[in-house]
């Protein structure tokens, strides 16, 4: 689909993880993600999402005088300072996508997600549903639900709406912060937990298995 | 926030639909609903809507817009006045950046007593404890329109000549205060407080909590009511530092319009006079810089360009009207521009995109079509790291290695996490080898269960060493030492012009495995030549049933018209640890089955 793969560090500056993404200091939206801070290194965190890669990528492009369109995917570990249980891990994997151009729309986000889920889950028919949400780095912001229909789909997945993650149209402030002309360009972004996608696809009941390094789990795939 | 359907109904003449319909309406057009219990919705108000939606009025307004049910007497749209103005209470705001407005209302001769039933009931329905008529009145108004309020016992405020003096200032270093629930706090100059201007004593932590001596008691007769607007960031810092999150601080943290303070004051004085009697003396209102009126413009084409829709001028006008957003549609060129006058409480509406979201959610996200992304002109770049990682994966997997991911958290390392929940393994790992050796040890025990001759592992992961973050490849095996190499040293030349195909696993479904230990038994049998090993195995399998989790033929030879098959059998239960005795009993039955068929157990 023409997306490039982009990367960024796991130990990230607050500037990339929060500020440049329009997550303001001393605002409740900063609490939406429980953050690991680093001892004796103020201003640094373990990244709470893969979104800082968007900022790094766009900033680097602008520095090279390369204007949009941009289309990237980023995958990697992210961290939340939470107690762990079957559904929660302090470290997990996220997949993130960003598409910026002159006329990349919310409708394109829906179409792209439908394709992504179709390829991943192999259902004959995939429906994508949006619900209103809030993220500081997108406007409008949505929660993404997915439903797959088809005889060969496992019963656990068939005909059921499942929450997949957050998405939206890139907030103009994020584009401005990296030097992209937000009057001319617009785009979408989404970020999903890979662990959750895998859990749904293969019916895995405990997210902690992902980091267990246990071959009784790993060698099944 | 807990929202009751009965309370919402007070904002509408037309009957509201049932609670499930309200829940669905909010879910698909406004907010996530965490629960629906006995006519009460738990609404997860997003941080951008704390300005107006941490209140029944705010949610009622949403319902009105979504379901197109007109609102009855919107309390924020009726004209109000705060009169008479008095000088028997004076207000001095020393920090106008942290307090944009402070209103004091003076009432004499109230009677503090239990609330009337209706007031008790509405508060209890949303999980609030009824305290007394004065406190309940402030809570009712807060949950009704969103303005936090506080009441002082006027007799405990010093009297200087004709007036009482209220000062809003920063706390002094280590200035002590005892909260109304009798807890001691030491403040600092980053905290904003309310102080008695005559004695200098703190009488409240601004926007967070009141002070004990000046709080309302059963004996209270005269009261000073506070309705104010404090800076969100400042309240947030103080509440976080003191670990004192209150309903009031949660609302201030999000930022509340100073205009709302007047509506809060009017509503709470009216309610107190109704439920506690007394006589209104009047109001003092310090509001140095009134909130300016704001306009945001958005065009029909901009809305459609962002959403990918074909909405008409009429669709958009209709959504704005339902939301109570007054607009002017520009007639001159360029046409189709809506100039929206933002209501004072909607501090979230700042840029055109904010209005686009309003249109999208009121129209409904189901109206957004699904459109393929047009091919963006650039050729996708090939990531050097990813290409190298995939090449290494393919290579090692073909050599019998399994890939593992382990935690980046370790007991030792160069860099330490400041605030790990539970406090275990607070360091960031500085090598992969330690985790790999540990994983090898654990997996080696399961070798028979896994059917592996030798456990060999690799991990491609991040470490933090010598002041930098680096991706390294680590390998370990039962016959090889754990080693690691930076990925940068393994990359060879430029990546290929495109990725290979990396298909996802063909596995259909994950099978949970037993957490209990397993038992290994070998069996060797002489069977007549020509007997398939599968036939033998099927006979063996019959007896142990689900306890036999793995079986493997590991030796075959032929002699004098007979074949010897040797199998390794792995027994394991999902329910318990199997004993040797249980395994032996199963084996006895396997032997019997074999003998019955005339096979000879070696």
Q: Would you mind describing this structure in some detail?
A:
In chain A, 24% of the residues lie in helices and 31% in strands. By secondary structure, chain A is an alpha+beta fold. In chain A, strands 1-4-5-9-8-7-6 form a 7-stranded mixed β-sheet. The longest helix of chain A is centred in the middle third of the chain and has 16 residues, at 106-121. Chain A is globular. The mean pLDDT of chain A is 89. With 602 residues, chain B is α+β, with helices and mostly antiparallel strands. Chain B has 5 domains: 2-67, Phenylalanyl-tRNA Synthetase, Chain B, domain 1; 89-286, Phenylalanyl-trna Synthetase, Chain B, domain 3 (Phenylalanyl-tRNA Synthetase, Chain B, domain 3, 3-Layer(bba) Sandwich), CATH 3.50.40.10; 294-367, 2-Layer Sandwich (Phenylalanyl-tRNA Synthetase, Chain B, domain 1), CATH 3.30.56; 384-491, 2-Layer Sandwich (BirA Bifunctional Protein, domain 2), CATH 3.30.930; 519-601, Alpha-Beta Plaits. Chain B is 30% helix and 26% strand. In chain B, the strands form 8 sheets. A 5-stranded mixed β-sheet of chain B has the order 4-7-10-11-12. A 4-stranded antiparallel β-sheet of chain B has the order 6-13-5-14. In chain B, a hairpin with a 7-residue loop joins β16 and β17. The mean pLDDT of chain B is 92. The chains are: A alpha+beta (221), B alpha+beta (602). Chains A and B meet through β1, β4, β5, α3 and β6 of A and α2, α7, α10, α12 and β18 of B.
């Amino acid at each position: 689909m023409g997306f490039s793969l982009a990367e960024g560090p796991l130990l990230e500056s607050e500037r990339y993880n929060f500020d440049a993404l329009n997550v303001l200091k001393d605002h409740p939206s900063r609490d939406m993600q429980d953050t690991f801070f680093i001892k004796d290194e103020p201003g640094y965190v373990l990244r709470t999402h893969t979104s800082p890669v968007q900022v790094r990528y766009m900033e680097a492009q602008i520095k090279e005088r390369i204007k949009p369109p941009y289309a990237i995917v980023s995958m990697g570990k992210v961290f939340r300072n939470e107690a762990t249980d079957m559904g929660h891990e302090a470290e997990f994997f996220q997949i993130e996508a960003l598409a910026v151009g002159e006329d990349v729309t919310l409708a394109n986000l829906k179409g792209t997600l439908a394709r992504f889920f179709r390829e991943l889950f192999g259902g004959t028919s995939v429906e994508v549903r949006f619900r209103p949400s809030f993220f500081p780095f997108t406007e409008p912001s949505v929660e993404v639900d997915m439903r797959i229909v088809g005889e060969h789909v496992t019963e656990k997945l068939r005909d059921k709406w499942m929450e997949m993650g957050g998405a939206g149209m890139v907030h103009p402030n994020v584009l401005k912060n990296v030097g992209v002309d937000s009057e001319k360009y617009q785009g979408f972004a989404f970020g999903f937990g890979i662990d959750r996608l895998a859990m749904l696809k293969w019916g895995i009941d405990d997210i902690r298995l992902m980091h267990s390094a246990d071959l009784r789990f790993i060698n099944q795939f | 926030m807990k929202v009751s359907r009965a309370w919402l109904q007070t904002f509408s003449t037309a009957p509201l639909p049932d609670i499930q319909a309200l829940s669905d309406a909010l879910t698909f057009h406004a907010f996530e609903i965490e629960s629906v219990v006995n006519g009460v919705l738990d609404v997860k108000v997003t941080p951008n809507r704390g300005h107006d939606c941490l209140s029944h009025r705010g949610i009622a307004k949403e319902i009105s817009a979504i379901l197109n049910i007109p609102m009855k007497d919107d309390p924020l749209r009726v004209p109000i006045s705060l009169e008479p103005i008095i000088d028997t209470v004076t207000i001095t705001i020393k920090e106008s950046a942290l307090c944009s407005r402070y209103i004091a209302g003076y009432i004499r001769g109230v009677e503090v007593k239990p609330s009337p039933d209706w007031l008790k009931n509405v508060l209890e329905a949303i999980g609030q404890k009824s305290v007394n008529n004065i406190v309940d009145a402030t809570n009712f108004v807060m949950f009704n329109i969103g303005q936090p309020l506080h009441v002082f016992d006027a007799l405990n405020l010093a009297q200087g000549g004709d007036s009482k003096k209220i000062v809003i200032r920063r706390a002094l270093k280590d200035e002590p205060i005892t909260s109304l629930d009798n807890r001691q706090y030491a403040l600092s100059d980053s905290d904003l407080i309310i102080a008695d201007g005559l004695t200098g004593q703190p009488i409240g932590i601004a926007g967070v909590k009141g002070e004990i001596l000046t709080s309302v008691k059963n004996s209270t007769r005269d009261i000073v009511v506070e309705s104010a607007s404090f800076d969100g960031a400042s309240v947030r810092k103080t509440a976080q530092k003191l670990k004192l999150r209150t309903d009031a601080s949660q609302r201030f943290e999000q930022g509340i319009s100073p205009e709302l303070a007047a509506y809060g004051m009017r509503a709470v004085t009216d309610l107190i006079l109704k439920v506690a009697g007394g006589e209104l003396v009047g109001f003092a209102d310090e509001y140095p810089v009134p909130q300016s009126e704001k306009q945001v413009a958005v065009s029909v084409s901009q809305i459609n360009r962002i959403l990918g829709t074909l909405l008409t001028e009429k669709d958009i006008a209709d959504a704005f009207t339902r939301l109570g957003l007054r607009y002017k549609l520009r007639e001159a060129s360029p046409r189709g521009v809506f100039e929206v006058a933002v209501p004072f409480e909607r501090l979230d509406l700042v840029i055109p995109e904010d209005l686009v979201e309003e249109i999208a959610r009121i129209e409904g996200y189901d109206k957004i079509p699904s459109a393929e992304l047009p091919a963006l002109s650039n050729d996708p770049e090939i990531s050097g790291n990813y290409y190298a990682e995939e090449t290494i994966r393919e290579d090692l997997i073909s050599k019998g290695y399994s890939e593992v991911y382990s935690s980046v958290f370790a007991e030792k390392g160069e860099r330490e996490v400041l605030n790990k929940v539970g406090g275990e393994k607070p360091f960031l790992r500085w090598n992969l080898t330690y985790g790999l050796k540990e994983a090898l040890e654990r997996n080696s025990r399961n070798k028979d269960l896994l059917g592996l001759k030798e456990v060999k592992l690799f991990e491609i992961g991040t470490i933090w060493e010598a002041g930098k973050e680096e991706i390294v490849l680590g390998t370990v095996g039962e016959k090889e030492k754990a080693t690691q190499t930076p990925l940068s040293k393994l990359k060879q030349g430029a990546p290929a012009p495109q990725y290979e195909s990396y298909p996802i696993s063909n596995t259909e479904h994950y099978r949970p495995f037993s957490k209990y230990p397993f038992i290994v038994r070998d069996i060797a049998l002489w069977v007549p030549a020509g007997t398939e090993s599968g036939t033998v195995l099927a006979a063996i399998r019959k007896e142990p049933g689900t306890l036999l989790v793995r079986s493997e033929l590991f030796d075959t030879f032929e002699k004098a018209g007979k074949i010897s098959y040797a199998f390794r059998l792995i027994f394991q239960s999902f329910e318990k640890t199997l004993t040797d005795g249980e395994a032996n009993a199963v084996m006895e039955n396997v032997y019997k089955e074999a003998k019955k068929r005339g096979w000879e157990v070696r």
